Amino acid sequence: MYAVAFSPDGKWVAAGSEDKTARVTEAATGKDVVRLDHEDDVNAVAFSPDGVWVATGSNDNTARVTEAATGKEVARLAPKSRVRAVAFSPDGKWVATGSDDNTARVMEVATGKEVARLAHQGSVRAVAFSPDGKWVATGSYDNTARVMEAATGKEVARLAHQGWVDAVAFSPDGKWVATGSEDRTARVMEAATGKEVARLAHQGWVNAVAFSPDGKWEATGSFDNTARVMEAATDEELYRIELPGAVLAVRFSAGGRGLEVVHRASTGAFDVFVARHSLDPLDLIREACSKVTRNLTPSEWRRHAGLSVHYRRTCENLPEPAESR
User: Fold this and answer.
1) Across the beta sheet with 21-26, what order do the strands follow?
2) pLDDT in tens, the chain (325 residues)
3) What is the reported pTM?
4) Among 137, 173, 134, 138, which residue's Cα sits nearest to residue 152?
5) Which runs of E-coded beta strand occur in 68-164?
């Protein structure tokens, strides 16, 4: 499985594969909804903002737009090079592509006409539109993430990594861009300037990034078999979820209180699984209490929670430590 994307409502998952197909499946059951055929490996998938269409990018040098529920082809775009990344504009009228010819392009869905082009010095592996549709963020094997004007291709900003950039995402207000790289870091940069705001280190390639609905948190997915959540403005790690295999996609639930993760099996096989994790503090406390044998002592509490938070017995079902009696 080369690429995975959630539908906007989280009900469906699209996946592109080396078997020359992209498939749309029910996220809850894994049941196939539709299969989309190409003439070569499918490297990229993306849903339109309303979830009606799916864009796919392939080694057959085409990007295609199809109806997600039926598989009916709506448009075919031909950048004339292997397509590694696809993304819809917020209004669904444009599709951005990233290709092995070292370009990112913006094309009209209805006509296939090229609107704009940005040149990199390496294969373009990630593309994303800003929420207002004015900018496109790109990630490339030239170790940079860039922001360009969608209508003109003019470069607005650039951030340098120390490895390939495989994932990009805009914050909901369009001010920040999250990036994921082969250099084992996820970063947040100012979209207008390229200035680095925050950085989170993984132990493996970071190939998935997403912002929470309020833009305060960033989720990351990595080949170190973890999904993590950090504060976007400070790079403080808030949550870490251990998975059996590499993480391919991450998505916050609509209210931001949950994280949906697509990951591989522990064997490294290309079968993928969808896992849902609550980020609600009460749920996390209950989970923690199920894995420990006692409450913290007052000295442990002060060390971890600080002096400003009064000691309390967090896990009501567990014994109170002797030091606190």
Assistant:
1) 3-6, 12-16, 21-26, 32-37
2) 678 888 998 899 999 999 999 999 998 888 999 999 999 999 999 999 999 999 999 999 999 999 999 999 999 988 889 999 999 999 999 999 999 999 999 999 988 899 999 999 999 999 999 999 999 999 999 999 999 999 999 999 999 999 999 999 999 999 999 999 999 999 999 999 999 999 999 999 999 999 999 999 999 999 999 999 999 998 889 889 899 899 988 989 877 788 888 888 766 554 556 676 777 766 767 777 887 888 888 887 777 666 666 777 788 888 877 665 5
3) 0.82
4) 134
5) 73-77, 83-88, 94-99, 103-108, 114-119, 124-129, 135-140, 144-149, 155-160
Q: How many distinct structural domains can be found in the chain?
A: 2
Whether residue 178 sits in one domain with residue 298? no
Statement to judge: residues 225 and 115 lie in one domain: yes
Domain shared by 306 and 246, yes or no: no
Measured CA to CA, the distance from residue 307 to residue 299 in angstroms comes to 10
Cβ contacts of 224 within 8 Å, gap of 6 or more: 184, 202, 203, 204, 205
Strand 103-108 versus strand 114-119 pairing type:
antiparallel
The first and second tokens of residue 48, run together, are: 């339109």
Q: 309 by DSSP, 3-state: which?
A: coil
Compute the residue count for the chain.
325
In order, the DSSP letters of 95-107 are EEEEETTSEEEEE
User: What CA–CA distances, in Å, run from 222 to 25, 132, 243?
Assistant: 23, 28, 10
Q: Which of 258, 231, 238, 247 is nearest to 10 (CA)?
A: 258
> Which residues form the domain of 230?
3-280
Cβ atoms < 10 Å from Cβ of 119: 15
Q: 241 and 275: one domain?
A: yes
From CA 13, how far away is CA 10, in angstroms rounded? Answer: 7
- The CATH number given to whatever domain includes residue 15 is 2.130.10.10
Q: Based on the domain organization, do 271 and 288 belong to the same domain?
A: no
